[in-house]
Structure formats: structure tokens, C-alpha cells
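Hi R.,

Quick one: here's the PDR/VanB family oxidoreductase sequence you asked about.
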Amino acid sequence: MSHPVMNVVVAQRRDEALGIASFELASETGEPLPAFEAGSHVDVHLPNGLVRQYSLCNDPRETHRYLIAVLRDDAGRGGSKAVHEMVRVGDRLQISAPRNLFALAPEAPHHLLLAGGIGVTPILCMAEQLAASGASFDMHYCTRSKERTAFVERIAQAGFANSVQLHHDDHPGGSTFALEQVLNSAPAGTHLYVCGPSGFMDFVLATARAKGWPQDRLHYEFFAAPAQQPATGGSFQVRIASSGATIDVPPECTVVQALAANGIEVITSCEQGVCGTCLTRVLEGEPDHLDSYLTDEERAANDQFLPCCSRAKSQVLVLDL
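And here's the predicted structure, written out as C-alpha cells:
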């Protein structure tokens, strides 16, 4: 089940860095687009039928456009390749309204923004919003090389440029990203936000946790879930609490697919266990968590799971549906 969509037109396309292009989306009618906050993303329905999620990276105060940026990944699932090859200026697309699963913490005394590669898209939007509100923040932007660094001119010209440090892996004389030093020098109560490749994010989060940063001050958004093997590869059943109906989930089928085949629709978005859209309460049974959304504490509670990817360790899961 997809989210309601609206029609937009591709008003501009621009090459931002090697392999990265930005796309400006505007209302077909010229009317203001729905408001959004930093960290929001939209579902983009592509010409080849795929649906992909892209973070909005323009200033949230803008109402005349949404800006997304896409890194071409020929080894990916086909979405980024389709965007680069098929989406042109003047094309009409369908997108969802913005949804925010990576929000800023308004109570934080200081914000530490860490971006790796294309993960700069939501992070840059956060910098725009924080700067506009006068909030305290620092931003570190790590890339493989200068030629792969998007939005360099925009950052250099921004009023918050002095709060941003760029780090390039191939620049020995440049600024090294000393994560431990950055974490140690963060003011008390700082909230950390990180987005980028999974290896970069795992490194940041593991280092922060090892230094005692509490989970409620760590905010992150994965682009894709790392591959995980289920604890058990067999079939199981889900029982619907409201009706008592019992549905078989075979090994080759997700819970979402099994429910849909029986007329029970669950709203999904990423279908990889990343975004949390399909989060469902578990009343009985033990889930086999295969997502990248829940925290370790939330997984241990076993009272919710993501049916788009997760399965069951017990023979039956009773769902609050």
C-alpha cells in the first residue's frame, strides 16, 4: 500500500559532483508545495515503475520547490540509475507528501551534524533550518574526493559556512576527520545526527556509543538495510488480533506480502526495514528482527517489528492489526 501522491514537474536538473545530480521539483499548478521540516523525505515514483525515497535538501522555508540529489549507483537496485537516465527537465512525476523520520531534537543545546557522501542531503537541510533558527551546530562533511563532493559552492556561500568542515579521503594535506576528537569536544548535551554509507554510519555510531553517548542523543538514517540472515529460514504464521485470522508466511514471502495476499494492507515505503513506516505492534510471539530501524532496546522488548523484512523466531506472531 502506497502513500497518497501528488503531481510535480522537474523544473531543473544540475550535476552537483561526479555521479551526483540534483533535481528541482515544483508544483504543476504553481501553487506552494506542502511544508516540510529538515530530515524529511519523499517517495518518488519513477518512470520505470520503481518507487524510491529521497531526502529533501533545500531550505525548509522554501515553498516553491523540493530539491533532491541522487548518487548514481550502477550496482544498486536500479532506482538511482533510472533517475539519472530517465528523468529530464519538464518531466512530470508523482511523489508523496514529505514525511520526517529523521527529525531534529528541538530541545538540544547543540547539534553535531555528520554527513558521509550523498548522506549530505538531509544533513544540509538540517544545517539550513538550524542556521535560520539561530541554533548552535557544527557540521562535518566527509567524501572520498573533492570531485565527489556535492553542494560545495552552496555551502561556501551559506551564512553558516564557518560551521562546516569538509574532509576528503584522497587529500593528505586536508582536514582529517578525527571523530574521537570531534566527539570529545562536543558541548554537554549535544545531539548527534549522521547519514551516509552504512560503514561510515556504523563507525560513527559505534564510536559514540563506546564513549557513552546515550541512545536518545544519537539520530541516524540509513539509505539501505545491510543484508541479514534470518535466525530461522522456515515458514511461520501471523495471527490478526482483531479478527483471529491466521495467515501462513512461507520462506520466500515477507509478512507484508502474505498479509496483502489475504486482503490486509500495511502501509510501506522503503520495504527494506530502514524507514519504519510499516512498524507494527506484536502482542505475542518473538520476532526475528532484520531491520535497521529499531534500537537494540526496542528489539529486546519484542513488542514491535517491521513486517516488510523481519520474520519470526516463534511459530506464531500475534499482530495488533
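The radius of gyration is 21 Å.

Cheers,
M.
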